[in-house]
Design goal:
The complex is a heterodimer of chains A (310) and B (489). By secondary structure, chain A is an all-alpha fold. Chain A has helices spanning 3-35, 46-50, 54-60, 66-75, 83-95, 103-119, 126-150, 155-178, 190-207, 211-218, 224-233, 241-254, 259-273, 282-308. The longest helix of chain A is centred in the first third of the chain and has 33 residues, at 3-35. Chain B has 489 residues and is of the alpha+beta class. Chain B has 15 helices and 24 strands. Chain B has helices spanning 29-36, 40-57, 85-109, 114-117, 123-127, 175-188, 192-195, 204-213, 237-247, 304-309, 327-330, 333-341, 358-366, 392-404, 480-485; strands at residues 18-20, 23-24, 60-65, 68-73, 77-84, 149-156, 162-168, 225-228, 250-252, 257-259, 265-269, 272-275, 278-281, 314-316, 353-354, 371-375, 385-386, 409-413, 419-423, 428-436, 438-441, 445-447, 452-456, 470-478. In chain B, a hairpin with a 3-residue loop joins strand 21 and strand 22 (445-447). The longest helix of chain B is centred in the first third of the chain and has 25 residues, at 85-109. In chain B, 47% of the residues are buried. Classes of the chains: A mainly alpha (310), B alpha+beta (489).
Amino acid sequence: MLSRVAERIYWLARYLERAENTARLVSTYHFLLLDLPKGAQVGWRALPVITGGQAQFAERYARADERNTLRFLLADAANPGSLANSVAWARENFRTSREELPGEAWERINELHLFVTEGVASALARGGRFEFLSGVIRRCQQLTGLLHGVMSRGNAYDFIELGRHLERADMTSRVIDIGTQGHPLSDLPRDEAVQLDVHVWTSILKALTAYQMYRKDLRIAVNDTDVAAYLLHDGNFPRSVRHCLNEIEASLGNLPLHGDMLRRVRSASHLLAQIKPAELDAAGLHQGLDGLQIGICAIHEGIRETWFRG
Amino acid sequence: MTINWNLYDPQGGYDELIGAPGTARAPATHLTDWLRSLSDEEIRLRKLNAELAIIDKGVTFTVYSDGENIDRAWPFDIIPRVLPLSEWQWVEAGLKQRLKALNRFIDDLYHEQRVLADGVVPRELIADSKGFRQECVGIHPAHGVWAHVCGSDLVRDADGTLYVLEDNLRVPSGVSYMIENREVTKRVLPELFENVTILPVDDYPERLLAMLQSLSPARGPRHQVAVLTPGIYNSAYFEHAFLARSMGAQLVEGADLVVGKDDTVYMKTIQGLTRVDVIYRRVDDLFLDPEVFNPASVLGVRGLMRAWREGKVALANAPGCGVADDKVIYSYVPDIIRYYLAEEPLLPNVPTYRCLEAADREYVLDNLPTLVVKPANESGGYGMLVGPQSTARERQEFARLLKANPRNYIAQPALKLSTAPTLCDEALEPRHLDLRPFILQGRDTYVTAGGLTRVAMRKGSLVVNSSQGGGSKDTWVVDSENADALPSR
């Protein structure tokens, strides 16, 4: 497989996963917002931070309010990580590597692109938001399922898996980090703040579609250390960082010249294993997640150097 | 209200489906009968479904305008153009004959030049030909074939005669649209395929691959084939990707390839460098290799000509084959066929006046209002004078151009191109069309069943190029004898 094509396929998968994750994140925030007591300050500011776009956001918008934040995350053509751009880039990467990918998936990604182009404006108002976001999630899932169901398990599929799991590990670790950010609501009385903690951690679970699985697997109350540990370490849950790293390791093993890459993944794995939420305060957890992020970045760099330089 | 064929008026020209008002030509009767059975609403729906299918499948072509590349949905008319098998067999034989002779001609030009020595084609035509490449002299491509993929344009005049209008030998495009048009027709008019024997067209990628593999310098059953594209901003990128995908070949850009010290072509892959045996190049000659041709080209591969000359890689079409894709050379093709094959040409050329020859030039200058004047080396319908639709000022300008550079112009009588019923805003109306079949030559020769029919969508217009508002139709070669044997519905 051509290096250039491998790179495009890898990015196609990353952008597709990013689009879905962004839709889930915004959707969760939207519902969290509706549950908060009247007058509580909502932390819209956290969203650009999670997606790594805080600098661009600050440059372009004066206020981190609902409308600005959503415009930035969903529709803004100047934000390279906006949902609309993620979908457009996923399509562009697909378009230029079509010979490796199933034709039926091309039709679906065109449809997703059209849906987003035509509908994104409607998501800025609360009324049309849910329908748009769930429409995006459904279409992304459909595509992921289609690729899973019809693609031969060759190198092209390995790069799709690599892109998807790397993006997902990255997003999961960023989302967990919301919980360590000092809650947007900490100026409230103590017992009320605990109540809200539950809301925040429940939302984190929901943003990663982990709520039901967490309940079923752990059968314990939602609390910060257990949620963080579950999302980091539970290898059975497909959006946990552990699961993603395992999958990355498996995909790497199928590709040629993977020696150095395995070392990088194992080093990230080691960083992950060292994060023990039960023994850490918020600052310690944040620090651990920072280290993990650097490990994930190193995997990406390694993929680029090993296979994309040609 | 439904279609009333009695109201359809071919306006005295030759119509591909309707022989006389109310009477369909034999191979088209199933089609016209069935269309008549549809309500207006149903026809509208099928048309809409075709448009949706084209958007869904992402069938596009790229137009360059106002400094921007615009990806447009492929324009398609759902009513097929129908050709009888008996006629087609004749055309097929004629096209094979033509390409064989052209390849003998090109091979001769780059070796002994017997055809010039024997005075069949004037030597000065080659001396100042834009397509002749000194760098190709003495090279021996596999099977002596230079033009491996040819897209010849056929037109039918008012009396029903099919003529070859031109032979596109450089990087002819359109074949992917021929295949996609059939796919769309199968989606939106499936009923028709039950009772009519329509020759399939979707084996083209298989034939193309077999042809390309027959050129490979490598031994053994596996040959690495690559399609070399200028990239996603090329107007035919859709087709490059389509062909690579359907052949299971690599779609490569110049930057994906390197030529090693061993004069072998490699592509950069996730395994490292791997050898390439055959390149179906869709990049023009002059951009192929900055070492030999345009030094500023970023589309090509440094050293590619060296690798080809050494026989380490096959290039299709071979560099230099464009020497025969010249409208003045075209006028000699019947003589070229007689010279190399000792056969009479099966398909006629459109009568052509060579402005190079004094008598012809005089005739052309005296008769500009009735002629079409074409430059020798342009494609896409650019730089032409269509006499009957021209202004006096345009004719003056062309007379000047023609006298200044007679070698560069030919003229032909303005043909009244045949028409076929086409769905226009309100009703079915006749629209002019042409046909581009694709011919392959490697170890064997092959011709597509039909080809790409292009339609001038504007009333009365003769310009079929998609870059200039042309549309397209599915093209059916119908085996009527078989169809009649089936019970009719």
